[in-house]
Automatic annotation (TrEMBL):
Pfam families: FMN_red. One of its GO terms (cellular component) is cytosol. It comes from Streptomyces cyaneochromogenes. This is NADPH-dependent oxidoreductase. GO terms for molecular function: FMN binding; oxidoreductase activity. Residues 7-151 form the NADPH-dependent FMN reductase-like domain. It comes from the Bacteria.
Length: 195
């Protein structure tokens, strides 16, 4: 019996003007597009509607229920890949705000990471994000895709110079995401998670 494709959210964590996230996320979305077991749902925190919702939530010191559009989008997905830069040895504040203002919707779902930055390639941001998602009862994947000195790794059209190596790394991550995504989706359907 054929399973419906997993609904995978690609969460773009940077909202800075001129951000490098566009190249990285567009490449990664194209990698998911090669598969028939997943469908991509991009959640770009710089989208005006989401940015406005998060800004309002922050200004009002509101509860997670005051971010309904983001919660609804997160809740309808089977798994996630967070595309994050590393800013000052950490991840962007916009990403933290978005994660914190959605709660139950993260539970018992897998989260993978594509990071980029300077010498560390965003790995310090990923290590911090693992702790945050563990607190939300999400399952983080072991393998990541990381771009060290990211601005040197892509051509002018947004393609990685090392197409074979990056595609292989993406494939490993997506295979893990597929296993966890399907397993946890079936588990949630058989017995709702309320941990």
């Amino acid at each position: 019996m054929s399973q419906p494709p997993l609904k995978i959210g690609v969460l773009i964590g940077s909202v800075r003007p001129g951000r490098f996230a566009d190249k990285v996320s567009q490449w990664f979305v194209s990698e998911i597009g090669r598969r028939d077991d997943m469908e991509t749902h991009v959640i770009d925190l710089s989208e005006p509607a989401l940015a406005g919702e998060l800004k309002l939530t922050l200004e009002r010191s509101a509860a997670p229920d005051d971010a309904p559009a983001l919660a609804e989008r997160i809740g309808g997905l089977d798994g996630f890949v967070v595309v994050t830069p590393e800013y000052n040895h950490g991840y962007p504040a916009s990403l933290k705000l978005a994660i914190d203002y959605v709660y139950r919707e993260w539970r018992a779902k897998p989260v993978g990471f594509v990071s980029y930055g300077g010498m560390a390639g965003g790995q310090r941001a990923v290590e911090q994000l693992r702790q945050v998602f563990a607190e939300l009862h999400a399952v983080t994947l072991r393998d990541t895709v990381s771009f060290h000195m990211a601005w040197e790794q892509f051509d002018d059209e947004g393609r990685p110079h090392d197409t074979d190596g990056t595609s292989k790394a993406a494939s490993v991550l997506l295979d893990q995401l597929a296993w966890w995504g399907l397993t946890l989706r079936e588990g949630r359907a058989a017995r709702p998670y309320d941990g």
